[in-house]
Design a protein that fits this description.
about 550 residues; Butyryl-CoA Dehydrogenase, subunit A, domain 2; 7-stranded mixed sheet; two-stranded antiparallel ribbon; 11 strands; about 60% helix; binds flavin-adenine dinucleotide
């Protein structure tokens, strides 16, 4: 089974019209062609390369990772002699991907990477997370390479990036017992050791995914006497250098194959990444935004897995003399699950394209004056879409997992069916990399300065097929309702959070509605890369946005009384 080729909506997003521009930007006018064996000559060749690698990942996901998922969930990792030992299935997954040369695919070719943009990299995480969401967390941590590549000096890049290609595992060590959502309170201490000309780390980190990793990116307090984010710097720590104890592994409800560790750093030597004091303000913020794309893709992968489990069961299970899929109540559940998956996916790849565009401009070094507007627009869009993606995709994954069990009836409550595991695995998605509540906080700026309304106006101005007009009309009404909601919110500061949550949910639904309309528009204009029509999902999401806006206005009026 191939988890890429059996899901042609992935090819649909991979061949989005913007992808040629992204490939050309990422390849800096295809300057590597002729210097490296795999460097493409043009955008078509670049997209063919992405497609080929995705086919390989799809094979591994379908034939190795998915069949291992159940056993990995039962066995899990353990600590042996201060090392984290993966479950045998996890080890096999890791080794097959490593032997296939797939680690570090988005790194520059100089470091043996394939120089892939985010869209295909994020797609690999979606595909792998469909097979096993817990393993998706381990896989996506290779994105730590991006932080090193963007901000570390050349000596650190030369030392660590080739190791990531060779399969060195990575972790992102931010959270501490007293610093979770509030990372400004991080206390793990970094002091400069003059005698040995290196930094030393001392303190505890908690809830660290892949905490037994070879390479760690660690947020630490370098400036004595400070207690806010401006006293924090960022470090890369090499496990081979000693000074780290894996104190315990958490006993979790889900993603059980993914080790979550408590770590004690004891005079551990480390290298500083970039400049002092910019650890949280700049580097972690960038890494977290990337990681939120990662959780978005894990969520879409889980949405897809839940959809497929539910569809297969509904076709097979008979009651009252017929397959349960024939009952409208079951079909409605399946339609909603498919619509949430399509909606979260289209937002995932729209956000990824924006991230790709602005990062590729930045990587060029000099942004020409005729490119500046495109760069700025992409950066603004990435900033405002990322919290919506993390919020909506993770909540949808939870909802799909819930509905998947509902379709299974009593069997869904039993360990024998995958949906029980999906339900447990989904639960973390709306918590790590910033809880749903924190995504609403992150969206507030765009709500307050009108950036979301401007984005919706931009989408609304695009020409569409007449068949899609009724759907656009629903979104226009939802937008008017949103504006009424915003006015009430501005007049009622004391119920701030309730209003902001409603506003964020409505905005996210409207944006996903437009994106699905554009997907159908592409199909109506002859794009046949996905055989299945996105129309039912577009109808569902536009109606959902409209209903959500009405409900929110009614609730807001009740609050204001
Ligand atoms: C399985 C797992 C894997 C993880 N992997 C990693 C990892 O690899 N690296 C890493 O550094 N961390 C990791 N974490 C930590 C994770 O990112 C944090 O658990 C998460 O950010 C929440 O922090 P907390 O648990 O301290 O909750 P708290 O911050 O204590 O939050 C508790 C509640 O308060 C709410 N809240 C807090 N502040 C606000 C606010 N300002 N406004 C509104 N609501 C608020 C939250 O939404 C939540 O509902 C992992 C956690 C788990 C469970």
């Amino acid at each position: 089974m191939n988890f890429y080729t059996d899901n042609d909506s992935l090819k649909f997003h991979l061949t989005h019209p913007e992808m040629k521009k992204i490939a050309a930007l990422k390849e800096r006018g295809f300057a590597d062609h002729g210097q490296y064996e795999d460097a493409p000559a043009d955008a078509d060749e670049a997209i063919e390369n992405y497609d080929r690698v995705l086919q390989l990942v799809g094979d591994i996901a379908g034939d190795v990772i998915a069949p291992n998922a159940e056993e990995v969930d039962h066995v899990g990792p353990h600590i042996d002699n201060n090392s984290v030992v993966y479950a045998p299935g996890t080890r096999q997954n890791y080794d097959v991907l490593k032997q296939s040369g797939l680690f570090g695919i988005s790194m520059p070719r100089k470091y043996h990477g394939l120089n892939f943009p985010y869209v295909p990299f994020i797609m690999t995480t979606e595909i792998i997370s469909r097979a096993d969401t817990g393993f998706g967390t381990i896989w996506s941590l290779q994105d730590c390479a991006e932080t090193i590549s963007s901000f570390a000096d050349d000596a650190i890049k030369d030392k660590f990036l080739p190791r990531i290609y060779e399969g060195a595992s990575c972790s992102m060590d931010l959270t501490e017992p007293d610093a979770g959502s509030d990372l400004q309170s991080v206390r793990l201490k970094a002091t400069f050791d003059e005698a040995n000309n290196c930094w030393r780390l001392n303190g505890v980190k908690r809830f660290i995914t892949n905490g037994g990793a070879d390479l760690h990116l660690v947020l630490a307090r370098s400036e004595e006497g400070t207690n806010d984010g401006r006293g924090l710097s960022y470090y890369v720590y090499d496990r081979n250098d000693g000074g780290l104890t894996v104190r315990r592994l958490e006993n979790k409800m889900g993603i059980k194959g993914s080790p979550t560790a408590e770590l004690v750093f004891n005079n551990a030597p480390a290298y500083i990444v970039g400049e002092r004091r910019l650890g949280l303000i700049k580097y972690v913020m960038t890494l977290m935004n990337d990681a939120r794309l990662g959780v978005g893709s894990q969520s879409v992968g889980l949405c897809e897995a839940a959809c497929r489990e539910a569809v297969a069961y509904a076709a097979e299970r008979e009651q009252f003399g017929q397959a349960i899929v024939n009952f409208p109540a079951v079909r409605d559940l399946l339609l909603a699950m498919r619509a949430r998956t399509d909606a979260a996916r289209t937002l995932l790849y729209e956000t990824s394209r924006m991230v790709d565009t602005y990062k590729a401009y930045e990587a060029k070094g000099k942004i020409e004056s005729d490119e500046r507007a495109d760069y700025k627009a992409a950066q603004r869009s990435a900033d405002i879409l990322t919290p919506l993606l993390k919020l909506s995709a993770s909540e949808f994954a939870n909802r799909n997992a819930y509905d998947c069990i509902q379709v299974h009836g009593g069997s869904g409550f039993m360990k024998e069916y995958a949906c029980e595991r999906l339900y447990r695995d989904a639960r973390i998605l709306s918590i790590y990399e910033g809880t749903s509540q924190l995504q609403v906080v992150a969206a507030m700026k765009g709500i307050a300065n009108g950036a979301y309304i401007a984005k919706i106006a931009e989408y609304d101005a695009r020409p569409i097929h007449s068949e899609l007009e009724p759907l656009r009309e629903l979104l226009r009404q939802a937008t008017e309702n949103y504006k009424a909601l915003a006015e009430m919110a501005n007049a009622n500061a004391e119920t701030d959070y309730d209003f902001r949550r409603m506003q964020t949910d409505v905005i996210a639904s409207i944006i996903m509605g437009y994106l699905l309309i554009f997907d159908v528009e592409r199909q109506l204009n002859g794009d046949e890369s996905c055989k299945r029509s996105f129309m039912p999902s577009a109808r569902f999401m536009c109606a959902h946005a409209h209903a959500e806006s009405l409900r929110s206005v009614a609730m807001a009026k009740a609050y204001c009384k």
